[in-house]
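seq:
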Amino acid sequence: MKRIAFVVVSVAAALTIRIAAQHDSQQHAGPILDEGLGRAHMDISCSSSVAVDFDRALALLHNFWYSRAFDRFTQVAAREPGCAMAYWGAAMTYNHPFWDPPSQADEAAAWALVQKGLAAQEASRRERLYLAAVAALFNDAGAGSKPLRDRQYRDAMAAAYAEFPDNETKLFYGLSILGAVQEGGAGFEPQAQAAKLFEDVYRDQPDHPGVLHYLIHAYDDPKHAPQGLKAARAYATAAAAVPHALHMPSHIFTRLGYWDESASTNLKGWDVSEADVKRASRALIVTFTTLHIWSTRT
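struct:
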């Protein structure tokens, strides 16, 4: 008779690489291969000369590769200081909906970026709504409780979505809904609301890294995990160079008892993260994420 041996291995930054003191020191995170990040695009008011780099930063943000996204957004801002959305993106890298809350220093750094974005000249009505939302999230460098600001951010993104219901706004609004759910909260209503937004985007852009990522989070519970299987199967392929994208399918595989697939995708994530660190020539730092490995034995 077979038994499933459940092994949880905590690893040093296996899947959500954070470079040492990346935000505090403002150091660059090192080179990254542009292939394998997934395809994402947002129409912005900035010049076409920074559009490609902005979209790469956007893909990194959707993949929760925050240190690398921060690097790319700040590079866009350096090249075009009037690009408001570059500051929006850099500020957003300090918000980790399912991970560690920002430190006081992070809140202050994000708020400073928000202020630069609000002062920038190149911003449409839609982009001003995005900036108003991130301003609510980091209000006055962290004034008020984080759960309250999460709800205020969600409501501000709802206003942006009501006026501009494009795919990117659907994704960020849906993520804001998930981010406002308190840990241990009962029911599925907010997750269902977010999932509906994600499913709308999925029908239009089935290989978008953000929609695949967020569908997994939305359906990450025993009852709804089967609905997330399509995204779990696709995400690691859509963003094959991203360690976190290789880890995320294991959330669904584990819920469904697909132990071998869960172990396999996590180990691939570890290998990709090691290769990335060697390219960057930097030391790994222990982070929140744990790598789940399952094995079977008789």
